Amino acid sequence: MATFLYKLGRLAFRRRHFVALVWVALLTLAGVGAASAPPAGSTSFSIPGTEAQKAFDLLEQRYPGMSADGATARVVFKAPDGEKMTDKANKATVRKTVKELQSGSEVASVADPYAGHAVSKDGTIAYASVKYKVSGMELEDSAKDALKDAGQDARDAGLTVEIGGDALTATPETGSSEVIGIAIAAVVLVITFGSLLAAGFPLLTAIIGVGIGVSTITALASALDLGSTTSTLASMIGLAVGIDYALFIVSRYRAELAEGREREEAAGRAVGTAGSAVVFAGLTVVIALVGLSVVNIPMLTKMGVAAAGTVAIAVLIALTLIPALLGYAGRRIKPAGEKSKLLGGGRTPKRPGRPNMGTRWASFVVRRPVAVLLLGVIGLGAAAIPAASLELGLPDDGSQPVSTTQRRAYDLLSEGFGPGFNGPLMVVVDAKGSDHPKAAFTKVGDEIKGLKDVVTVTPATPNKTGDTATITVVPDSKPSSATTEDLVHAIRDKGADITSATDATVLVTGSTAMNIDVSQKLNDALLPYLALVVGLAFLLLIVVFRSILVPLKAALGFLLSVMAALGAVVAVFQWGWLSGLMNVEETGPVMSMMPIFMVGVVFGLAMDYEVFLVTRMREAYVHGEKPQQAVVTGFKHGARVVTAAAVIMIAVFSGFIGSSESMVKMIGFGLAVAVFFDAFIVRMAIVPAVLALLGKRAWWLPKWLDRALPNVDVEGDGLRTDADPRTDPDAEKELVRA
Fold this sequence. Notes:
By secondary structure, this protein is an alpha+beta fold. The chain contains 24 helices and eleven strands.
């Protein structure tokens, strides 16, 4: 592989005009496609295999036009002090608002609070329920705006009006966070390279790659039913790996220049060596993202595949466009160790010949590997302790900041009707196979009334044919509580007994039950997903490093960093530690998607650092250095680059901590902490300590397996054995003809 990529790098360097033209054409084509594509339609959300989804599907069949999975909203009214919502003037104001709400084209129904007994016992709070024909993800912005504006007249009349429900679901804005991340990345790159031009290449190529990827997603959004979150994830991951991969190759190019090679030769060798690491690092990210399909949530699968495509584009750009840009730059890109004149180049170093920080740190670790290893493992183990108390759930309006109308509506409903009123359960009774459907409906209601934590059970509402009915159950506890989850399971357990007695099937659905089922599905998929991703990457790394222990160490180190990061997330968002510093207003269960999402994203980024750092060590070892010296050499050339890449990623992810959305805040914090733990503790401390202790055994591979594995030559040994064109003009001519 190194030889092929070496030739590709030299070809891109020489044919830079053609390469640049191809990428500009692809960017233009993707942009035109995105601009001319029809607007993305409604994004369907389904969770195959869950009881809640089965109930939704059944309601669609038995209640035509009901829109069982349609968005809902509750417009909550509170009377001024000393007044009641039943006062004549307040009634007139509320009914005027209800009439305004009914005018929307996507509105299925609006319930009058006074006709539906939706007034609290003390008469101070009332609510109007709005049902839409489409889900919250499909709802047009105009309908959301009309919902927000509908209560203005009531506010002007002196009533407090707040709006809750999934109809106001919106994709968090992250543009400012991305800008902050790019700005910090630019500063780090300038410091790393000592050159504005060299620093600009990774940013430019990453933006081009993300532009092509996101534009392609936008162009295909309508045809493939892709949501806005798909492009958000793709841009975040694409920007991260795009900067990393270009950073690796530019850094190696400057190192080759420092060894005295000609620029075209240096570009070829940079792509042949660092480019090989980029290819395999990219493959691990692709495996992690495509592996999300094992969860069997269609939306999550599409997000993973789309992001994986953006990563593949980032790899191709790093291998072709970077050497082409290096050809354009010419002598303006300085060898490693030299800075541009603008940034202080040409000055005499204060301490010439002094080893760099990476060399000094690796030498320290090699001298004291046991102490460093124990300190790193114990530290991460301590950070992982809170993960044992991990509780998973999906956020609801109760986890929103108190400044939002959704949270204020949630609190008003809890005040007037009890905490469970914010998460009612819908029980669907399928009595098509029962001889006495009405009796089955009555029995289900009676059985549920006898359960704990039940406040209200509404009478059964049959469909036109009388073979199916819905029953609304209001729990006594808030939707995200463990007590409500126990109630859902208790109703389902009762349903099994009812089925055997009446031949009627009982299903529990609604947003609360759906959240519980999604959390369970993601929890059940975590171990298979982890086994698939780590297993495939383990096999891939065996091929890369031609070792058993190095990939095993890489996988175990990753698991340690992920568990420590999950522990930090639990401590902050579930236990409330440092919640004031992080502006966490409401603690509660960790978002159920967080662990599996963290595993996928962090695994890919962690393997980037592992491959780039350890391939440098492997390269030095293969070329004759002793194992411990090879560790130091790997850090000498790779530590600065890996540190820069990690700082950039931490900055990008930390930008999301400032989001008002608790889910986005949690993802940003979790990923930033995970990258910090993995890059600076696992890769920079535990990895060199383990390799120093293992010595030659780290690179052991059974002979039969060595013969069976393909030789991908990531360390560029094939390039080293070729004649060096710096001293052999015939070899130079041969390479130019290649």
